[in-house]
Sequence to fold (274 residues):
Amino acid sequence: MTPKKILLATLLAAIAFSQNTSAQDADTERGLERYRQMMKEDPWSNPGFLDVDRGEALWTTKRGPKNVSLEQCDLGNGPGKVDGAFAELPRYFADADKVMDVESRLLWCMEKLQGFNRTDLVRRPHPGGGQPVKELGAIVTWIANRSLGMKFAAKLDQAKEKEAVAMGRTIFMRRQGPFDFACATCHAESGKRIRLQGLPFLSNAGEAKKVVGEWPAYRVSSTHVMTMQHRMYDCYWQMRMPELELGSDVSVALISYLTKTAEGGEISAPGLKR
Fold:
């Protein structure tokens, strides 16, 4: 076979492979969309609702060295008021003098109210494949679900809130680490894919509104619920960056930026992801 024929055969094979994988990916997306539609018709078919129930039980259970529940935890609207709280987070909390998302606020409440050691709480806080979401993640899933159908309405207009949003945008756009990656490498352009999976254009308000409100979400591939903090942690791991600590200023800043970008988007947690 001549070099030209070899080149032509290689090109044809590459085109065929591309078309085949694109077709397979389209089939997967259609299947997942059918599953999402089924869940809209019967939301309880989403396994993530098992953690909604577990989270509610954990919220009211007396636990920790102080043997108290989280029912006096103030998520921003007063002690124990959960309905709609997730839709208004992240926000600045004067008692902690920090901007907090739902997970960092829960860490604070578990430490201050229940007496848990924060160091213990942030050590290996996320589940492995096939393992159930841990206690904090289950509570987060329940809290998020109590804002189901509401719109993101975090004001993020206080001075420290503005700083967090600006910091989050800078981190999102900045290339760093051994791969010279940024969040924007994967999530600041339409039509990007990784391992045949479509990647959301998160710096675009229209697309951010569609996807940010789906977290926490049940991951079919790992068979557990993943919170937004866990999603950030996993992205950092994939970029081979230093481990992102649960509730850190960096993670809260990124979530503040994404939430601001998704302002007005509907909350549909727990969502469903492949």
User: Anything to note?
Assistant: Residues 43-273 form a domain with the Cytochrome Bc1 Complex; Chain D, domain 2 fold (CATH 1.10.760.10). The first strand starts at residue 91 and ends at 93. Strands lie at 91-93, 98-100, 193-194, 197-198, 217-219, 224-226, 271-273. DSSP finds ten helices and seven strands in the chain.
